[in-house]
UniProtKB/TrEMBL annotation:
Listed name of the protein: Ras-GAP domain-containing protein
PANTHER family in the cross-refs: GTPASE-ACTIVATING PROTEIN, RAS GTPASE-ACTIVATING PROTEIN WITH IQ MOTIF
Domain of life: Eukaryota
Biological process annotations from GO: negative regulation of Ras protein signal transduction
GO cellular component annotations of the record: cell cortex
Keywords, ordered alphabetically: Coiled coil
Biased composition (Polar residues): 1-18
Molecular-function GO term, any one: GTPase activator activity
Keyword Transferase in annotation: no
Location of the Ras-GAP domain: 168-384
Length: 773
């Protein structure tokens, strides 16, 4: 077992003291742990714990890699969202269209070439330096523009420190955060704007919460609470008097066929607020909203111990930096800054758009969606100083804020109570020099972009030409240009330092810190633990007969166990000569410590299995999100083809619309062909989440079906039919432009009078049915 196999290894290093057990005659626990890590680095014990740890490592590695893929896909979707509006309005030049197309190309492993061995070696040195000395990246993050930050963040969060569950990388990343936050506080001009504006720093903090541990926390804490709320599709908890009044008027008109003269449409907010019927509708809703918000709050407060260590540590830095910069700031004001990070950038986005965090299947219906928005507003008002200037009606929920303010401040302060990691980081850095497997997987464009950004700011980052960063960048020379997307292959980059001497012998490196007898004792104990885990049934017999275990290992048919058995017999003899252990009492001291370590490992197995189960769900969620994002990209591909076909008559116009280019080749559009109709039942569309809400009575739904036709590329007709009737009950003309624009504007519902459809899923269906016909 190594330190990186511990469940939640980046948890508070202070909690590691519970592992100290009875390590004898040393006050240097960190050195003892370091020795254990070194001794066990190349040991793979094949018991149940070893297998569980191996599975957990593999799972964490898959989550880290998939998180990066999702981040890249989200960037592509964001880019295409911003460009698609121009395409829709025919305001995009031909070269811009080609740029959009390039965002849809896949990497071709046969295209392009890697840097030569010498260049890769130089990049290996550079990226080891960047990873192990986070101050350089911290400075760079402050120097780049907002338009450059996403590309840099991709490299920093998901490549340079991409192993999200490995303590050394996590701690180096947090050290970088501390430097960035310190600078932000130093340059702040006013307290109120700290950490709230959309800056590279705030983008960094948001991106950090989207890594695996943050996603895992959100799913385990919020998913059940949100899903139980959205089951109540018809529960309307709107409290904005204007909206409540409008809904009331519409209902009266539907029921009576007319409106009484004292209920005109479009009244002012104060008139709506003063209406006694509106007040009577809102009153019970306020009570229910406060109950629901309280249930969310209790769940979040009770989850404090499972908040990822890194997020708690950032909260701690915000508190510490605020106290130093503003010594007169009240605890209330400090907590508002911590809450601004924890709620505004972490918790609330997942509550408002749970589908984007894959906490729910599909988009919540209209009423629960509004309720979730109100809950997020209430939590934000609780964490921050409430402002009711824009939404005066929210003041009616002030009792929730007043009743819970002290509780939330206590929670935010408790979040900050975690230990620091500098001792363990020093130990991890030391260990890194003895490892041969420090590797990152980085694309060519990430390499070249980081190289280019460093060169742009090298005078600030490394003003002295004798500094390591300057030496490496001078040797590398000019940064290569970005390669085309399909040539942007991934390189496996071994990281190592050209200035530090790799540690060949951990034992001799530690001799100054630990006596030789202590070193011998620790290694002997470590080998006995390995032998008991490796030999069948030995762990069942208590107390452990260490001499017999050594003899049994030395006489097995397994060469590795034989070598260890012979070695540990000799080590016991040496310890006996040094009067550290005694044969006469059965080596009682060591026997007790070996037993205690095995008890700890037994408990650890349960934790590893529980963590694996939790992370399996997270991995599935991240993969689902990846599929959702890929679906969106497929819709854009289909759109790019359709928009040019439908506008073929404008070929050669200045907008460039009218020519479909696929893979760089122009194709002349053929004569439009009517496709369909394709038939889908109400049950089919409901099962796939395409129908979000339905007003069709349950007993009539089996007789309802939908025909979808595409008369021309990019246009569709959805017809709602009832079995036995020749004519459609309702027909709607759809244009792919309108659907994409709705999606871009986060308008996820399409109203077909009798049913409401999920826009992204409708797009997915149209893409699936029509693009390959």
């Amino acid at each position: 077992m190594s330190y990186t196999d511990l469940p939640n290894s980046p948890q508070s290093p202070g909690s590691m003291s519970s592992r100290r057990l009875t390590n004898r005659n040393t006050n240097r626990y960190s050195v003892t742990a370091l020795f254990s890590m070194a001794a066990e680095q190349d040991v793979e014990v094949e018991d149940e714990l070893g297998r569980a740890q191996k599975r957990l490592r593999e799972l964490k590695s898959r989550i880290s890699a998939q998180s990066k893929r999702n981040f890249v896909l989200e960037r592509d979707v964001r880019f295409l969202d911003s460009r698609i509006g121009l395409l829709i309005q025919n305001r995009m030049a031909l070269d811009e269209q080609h740029e959009v197309e390039r965002h849809l190309e896949d990497v071709d492993a046969t295209e392009g070439h890697f840097p030569d061995d010498r260049k890769l070696q130089q990049y290996s040195n550079l990226f080891f330096l960047l990873q192990s000395e986070p101050r350089h990246i911290a400075s760079l993050c402050r120097l780049v523009s907002l338009s450059e930050i996403d590309t840099l963040l991709q490299t920093v969060m998901f490549t340079l420190y991409g192993n999200q569950y490995e303590s050394r990388e996590e701690h180096l990343l947090l050290t970088m955060f501390q430097s960035v936050l310190s600078s932000q506080f130093e340059t702040a001009t006013e307290f109120g704007s700290l950490l709230r504006a959309n800056t590279p720093v705030s983008r960094m903090m948001t991106t950090y919460t989207r890594r695996g541990p943050g996603q895992s926390y959100l799913k385990s804490v919020l998913a059940e609470r949100i899903n139980s709320l959205i089951e109540h599709k018809d529960l309307n908890l709107e409290i904005n008097p204007v909206k409540v009044y409008e809904q009331m008027v519409i209902q009266i008109e539907e029921e009576t066929g007319s409106l009484p003269p004292n209920l005109p449409r479009g009244v002012a907010p104060e008139v709506a607020s003063a209406n006694s019927d509106v007040q009577a509708i809102i009153a019970p809703r306020l009570t229910m909203l406060m109950e629901i918000a309280n249930s969310f709050l209790v769940t979040i407060i009770e989850s404090m111990e499972s908040v990822p260590y890194g997020i708690r540590w950032i909260c701690k830095q915000i508190r510490s930096l605020t106290r130093r910069k503003y010594p007169d700031a009240t605890d209330y004001a400090i907590c508002s800054l911590i809450g601004g990070f924890f709620f505004l950038r972490f918790i609330n986005p997942a509550i408002v758009t749970p589908q984007a965090y894959m906490l729910v299947d599909g988009v919540p219906a209209k009423f629960p969606r509004r309720t979730l928005t109100l809950i997020a507003k209430m939590l934000q008002n609780l964490a921050n100083k409430p402002s009711y200037a824009k939404e005066a009606y929210m003041i009616t929920l002030n009792p929730f804020v007043e009743n819970n303010k002290a509780r939330i401040n206590q929670f935010l302060n408790n979040l900050c109570e975690v230990g620091d990691f500098y001792d363990t980081l020093e130990m991890d850095q030391y260990m890194a020099l003895s490892k041969k497997d420090l590797v990152i997987h980085i694309t060519l464009n990430e390499l070249y972009n980081t190289h280019s950004l460093i060169l742009q700011h090298v005078e600030v980052l490394s003003p002295n030409d004798k500094q390591h960063l300057r030496i490496l960048t001078d040797e590398l020379g000019a940064a290569p240009a970005q390669v085309p997307r399909k040539e942007n292959r991934t390189v496996e980059l071994q990281l190592y330092s050209r200035w530090e001497t790799p540690i060949q012998d951990i034992q001799s490196a530690l001799m100054d810190s630990v006596s030789s007898s202590d070193m011998l004792y620790m290694e002997t104990k470590s080998i006995f633990v390995q032998l008991i885990r490796s030999l069948p049934h030995v762990a069942d017999k208590r107390p452990y007969n260490l001499a017999a275990i050594a003899e049994r290992a030395a006489t097995t048919k397994d060469a590795t166990l034989v070598r260890k058995g012979i070695k540990v017999k000799e080590m016991l003899r040496e310890l006996e000569e040094q009067k550290v252990v005694e044969r006469t009492d059965g080596y009682r001291l060591m026997q007790e410590e070996v037993a205690a370590e095995l008890v700890h490992l037994g408990n650890l197995r349960e934790k590893v299995l529980a963590e694996s189960k939790s992370l399996e769900a997270v991995y599935k969620t991240i993969c689902d999100h990846n599929n959702y994002l890929r679906g969106q990209l497929e819709q854009y591909k289909a759109y790019l083809q359709n928009v040019r076909l439908t506008a073929s008559k404008d070929k050669g116009a200045s907008t460039g619309v009218g020519v479909i280019t696929v893979g760089g080749k122009e194709k002349k559009p053929s004569k439009p062909q009517v496709l369909g109709p394709y038939r889908f039942t109400h049950a089919q569309l409901e099962k796939e989440g395409i129908i979000v809400e339905s007003n069709v009575p349950d007993n009539r739904r089996p007789n309802i079906y939908f025909n979808i036709t595409s008369p021309t590329p990019g246009t569709f007709i959805i017809a709602l039919h009832y079995k036995g009737r020749e004519k459609a009950i309702l027909e709607m003309d759809l244009n792919i432009d309108d659907l994409l624009e709705k999606q871009k504007d986060n308008k996820h519902l399409l109203d077909l009078e009798y049913v409401q459809l999920n826009v992204p899923k409708v797009l997915g269906l149209l893409n699936k049915v029509f693009t390959k016909r």
